[in-house]
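Lab notebook, bench 4. The sequencing result for the construct came back, and we need a structural model before the next group meeting so we can plan mutations. Quick request posted to the team channel:

Model the 3D structure of this chain.
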Amino acid sequence: MSENSSGIRVRPIEKSDYEQWRPLWDGYNAFYERHGPTALPEPVTAALWDRFFDDGELVYGMVAEQDGRIVGLVHYLYHRSTTSIERACYLQDLFTEASLRGKGVGRALIDAVRAEATGAGSPRLYWHTHKTNETAMTLYDKVAVNTGFVMYAKKA
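Done. Here's the predicted structure in token form:
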């Protein structure tokens, strides 16, 4: 895929990455308070992992490596939109090792998804984060536009 000046290489996720991917995935979920009694059920994680390798799915994953070690993950998907003919690209999950935040890993992952979305003919890449995630928003404010939309959610 690509490597930046900090030696961060972003590439598509591979089945052999599971052992290094899983702790990052668990860290991402813990950050959003999905741990212990509120943890994602194991079948959800297993289904996500399987979707990465299913050509019939529109869910994708990439990892960032530094010195041969996985230090970040990004998951994204494509979906139809009521305001565009082309599919939109939604960057759903982005997580890096805490010690490497602010060192280019997140930016490299976003840039890689942007390149993939462009190559897939998707004119729109978007994501959201929690309003308390100030560390991430420092990066996001540099690489994208805060549209001001507020997200609401309700269980169906």
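Residues 7 and 132 are 30 Å apart (CA to CA).
Will bring this to the meeting.
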